[in-house]
Amino acid sequence: MTRYLITVGVILLLFIGTFGAFNYFVDPLLLYQQQGSSNATLNRVDQFDNMRFSKPYHVLELKPDAIIIGSSRSGTIIPKHAQWLGLKGYNFSLPGMTLNEINRSVRHAHANHRLNKLMIGIDYQAVVSPLPTSRSGFEPDRLVSSATGFRSATYLGQYLTDLQASLLSLDIASESLAALSPPGPRVRKYFSNGIWRSITNQLTGRGGYIFSAKNTARTREVTPFEADTNLAIYEDLLRFCYSNNIDTRLFLTPTHVFVVDLWFGLASEALWRDTHRRLLAINQQLASEYNRTAFIIRGFGNEAQVTDEPIYLARHIERAWFDDGVHYRAKMANGLMKGVWDTHSDFGQNLSSDNIDQYLDSIDALLISDCAAVANCEASSAIALDATSAPIESVRPFT
């Protein structure tokens, strides 16, 4: 009987060891071999749903000292610029990243390796949506706030849990098998510097605008819009950056004026204006408190012929700045990086409490001009209320 139990135990251990070794060497999420890996290796499987698992560990391994962080709107921006020469850049953005997740992730990256440059994309919708505070897959214990946190019981416990999930789970085994299989159709392409891009025209142009509008309207159904909750997190995030002397620049992620009109229907223009004012006021208040020059906050929402561009059919999407009114084509992503970091860029505008109302007025002017080009500008409000009708009438004729 003893010999039988020993034999069964040895077989079981061999099976577990082989299973774990298989997942370790295939490493579909590049949790163990991110350093020096190729983009082709990263693209063996779709990484989209696993970013909240894998990216914190990628940051630990790569040790970037310059990061871009935000939602998927920031996820296409290449972390490379003349002012970043000599620095290791990484795009730490996540799909639907909340301000709470941004705050925790910036601290995690800085605890691992001191940040020199930081670029933060601030989505208006993320500021005025208090719930959820994090998305599915986010584990706060996976992130630390200081170097000593890597030795804490909570972090070590989460690390062991993640170790088991990355080596011994059936889900990861499925990903490993997919990584060894011939690649099927892909909708996104991933890069080792953290960015990802859509490589399909699916949900672009007219269809993309309808999809993003309905998603925005559904957000309003889950929770009332209010900014207080996330502005407190935003202040905590900026306070951390000021206190640690991180060269930080922020940008307000631009959206098509159709989406701005939709936000007015979902909440109010008063909330839109007040939220923007408070974002600027908090930054300037902290700069004064720390006796520092205020962080640059760049706005791009009033760029004529960009945020009010026609909504192209998917087959003509290469002409566009936006895929769907909120996500960016490559020329927009490149323009945002240059606009934020180029000293004399004419793309975008540095914002302060002194000029924020003028900036918001200029966005209103684009919206009014855009509405004048169509037969009926009231449809977006209807979309906001029931999220069922197609928001076609609220934008320019499709070209």
Name its key features.
47% helix, 399 residues, single chain, alpha/beta, 8 strands, 14 helices, disordered C terminus, 8% strand, globular, 6-stranded mixed beta sheet, two-stranded antiparallel ribbon
Written overview of the protein:
- The chain contains 14 helices and eight strands.
- The chain has helices spanning 2-26, 39-42, 51-62, 99-112, 124-128, 153-168, 170-180, 205-222, 228-243, 257-266, 269-289, 330-341, 356-372, 379-386; strands at residues 66-69, 89-91, 117-122, 188-190, 196-198, 247-252, 296-299, 349-350.
- It has 399 residues and is α/β, with parallel strands linked by helices.
- Helix 9 runs parallel beside helix 11 (269-289).
- It is 47% helix and 8% strand.
- Residues 374-399 have low confidence and may be disordered.
- It is globular, with a radius of gyration of 23 Å.
- The strands form two sheets. The protein has a six-stranded mixed sheet, sandwiched between helices. The chain has a two-stranded antiparallel ribbon with strand order 4-5.
